[in-house]
């Protein structure tokens, strides 16, 4: 079959590599893709949120399956767009319906969902412009640090964690009255701060059955020792050593099962990935957030560990027969280290020539922000390359990634040398 992947990052390159290895995939397209996907699929320069253009592409290329990488098209309802269009109805979209995508698109929706289905998460209240006075009072009843979350999508920047009460109240006003995060902060969720270690749990579901994918831990801060600004993610490790069988059992019974049965009870159509951001507090798992897609860079360690062909597994989502297939996962550890442009996540330069990838051995180099210009591979984003390796444990895998990074060069490149430091 002909398959289309939407997106342009390292996550999408990892999907492209995996899907390109399937003997059920005839032609693979990716929109818009990057300098790495270009080698294994056909890049098509259209924006995934331009549904009209996506439709034209799907019809022109006789595409039968669309795998959606990022959240934006999902939150904007690409699943429903396909389902309700007579020319597209037969095309499978791997991802949730618009209603399901609210689990990521609205923090308040997600909190209400968890409350309704008794899924452990931080206590919260939400506020709008109209209830700002109550919001400021509510903060006075909380212990610091104060956690303020813009309700809507804010490209991973919508969460503020503040120690000082006055500052928290000022920021609440900035979010609600001055639209600090645009429309996304018309509503703000204030929640209890949870102190613990985070991990990501990935689930594939057909809305009825589910499969647990490998766990991963990502490193969000730009600086070593988790210091400095938040980024999209600077590296990842899978599996997560502290997620032992006992802890996974708690996650499955208290969080994954109630999430899937909650979707069913609420009549929410969901045939795709759920990425559950978790925190372990005194040995117990709590949900920090839901995402309705795979993580980036987590995908660059999770997918390489899956040995099974993903295409026939995706097909079972349509018929809600995910329970009839099995998922083989390598016991080896995988790690990825992100090479980023100097200055990221603030201002950085693009258009730097990338050299040395051809000298890499024993690692996979996933492209994130790269492009081919006049025949030359160049940087085109903040996160540029993700270097993934396997090992008997994460330390062995990391060593390979770091050895191979030494062979790659672009002007002002930066990477964290301490991925896995806290494990
Ligand atoms: P989110 O966008 O919801 O993932 O939040 C971004 C980051 O903020 C998370 O990865 C956590 O590190 C942190 N965070 C969010 N909510 C809480 C909370 N209730 N307690 C502690 N940290 C939090
Ligand atoms: N790495 C975190 C995310 O994809 O949201």
- CATH class of the largest domain, anyone? Alpha Beta
Bound ligand species: adenosine monophosphate, glycine
**Shape estimate:** globular
Main beta sheet, described? Answer: 9 strands, mixed
Topology:
Blueprint (H helix, E strand, L loop, with lengths): L2 E5 L2 H11 L7 E5 L9 E2 L7 H10 L4 E4 L2 H5 L2 H6 L8 E5 L1 H8 L1 H10 L7 E5 L3 H10 L4 E5 L8 E4 L2 H12 L10 E5 L5 E9 L4 E3 L4 E2 L2 E3 L3 E4 L4 E4 L6 H21 L4 E12 L2 E8 L7 H7 L4 H10 L13 E9 L22 E4 L2 E4 L2 E4 L3 E9 L2 H12 L7 E2 L9
Parallel strand pairs: 1-2, 1-4, 2-3, 4-5
Antiparallel strand pairs: 5-16, 6-9, 7-8, 7-9, 10-11, 10-16, 12-15, 13-14, 15-18, 16-17, 18-22, 18-23, 19-22, 20-21
Helix pairs in contact: 1-10, 5-6, 7-8
The structure holds adenosine monophosphate and glycine.
Would you mind describing this structure in some detail?
It is built from 12 helices and 23 strands. It is α+β, with helices and mostly antiparallel strands. It has 4 domains: 2-95, Rossmann fold; 130-185, Dna Ligase, domain 1, CATH 3.30.1490; 197-324, ATP-grasp fold, B domain (D-amino Acid Aminotransferase, Chain A, domain 1, 2-Layer Sandwich); 333-415, Phosphoribosylglycinamide synthetase, C-terminal domain (Glycinamide Ribonucleotide Synthetase, Chain A, domain 4, Alpha-Beta Complex), CATH 3.90.600.10. Strands 1, 2, 3, 4, 5, 10, 11, 16 and 17 form a 9-stranded mixed beta sheet that branches. α1 packs parallel to α10 and α5 (98-105) crosses α6 (107-116). The longest helix has 21 residues, at 245-265. It is globular. Bound molecules: adenosine monophosphate (AMP) and glycine (GLY).
